[in-house]
Amino acid sequence: MIELDFFDSSNKFGVIKATVHRTGKLGFSSGASKFMNIENVNFFNIGLNKVNANDKSLYLVTEKNETDKSFKVVKAGDYYYIFIKNILRELKIDYKNESIIYDIEEIENSGQQIFKLTRRERK
């Protein structure tokens, strides 16, 4: 006799990704918005991994109040985005001519919730 543990066919959030638009906006899919609970987020601080220069991921940390380093979460209809044009320019990412999509995962660092955005590799 065997006991089976079946996988859940429902996808709790849907696609969890962020897409860069030609305008320099980083738009979040509806699945990402739910996953990140973005309707309760005012700002993000965005950073890079300063310990590992080969890590090209973006790291987002929620911020309640506006600071010199925070990026405002904007809502248009049911859609959320942040303007990251200056970051893309600084990183020399050709967001106007390339398709740029980031997969999002939640990680923890020293007890702090962080969203790691890993750029999808084009095949």
Structure characteristics:
123 residues; mainly beta; 9-stranded antiparallel sheet; 9 strands; 39% strand
In brief:
With 123 residues, the chain is mainly β. It contains 2 helices and 9 strands.
Q: Give the termini distance in whole angstroms.
A: 44 Å
How many strands?
A: 9
Order of helices and strands: EEHEEEEEHEE
Percent strand:
35-45%
Q: What would you report as the Rg, rounded to the nearest angstrom?
A: 16 Å
Strand order of the largest sheet: 5-3-4-9-8-1-2-7-6
Could you give a short account of the major beta sheet?
Answer: 9 strands, antiparallel
Supply the number of helical segments.
2
Structural class: mainly beta
How is this fold's topology laid out?
Blueprint: E1 17-20, E2 25-28, H1 30-36, E3 43-47, E4 58-63, E5 70-72, E6 74-76, E7 79-83, H2 85-90, E8 100-109, E9 112-119
Antiparallel strand pairs: 1-2, 1-8, 2-7, 3-4, 3-5, 4-9, 6-7, 8-9
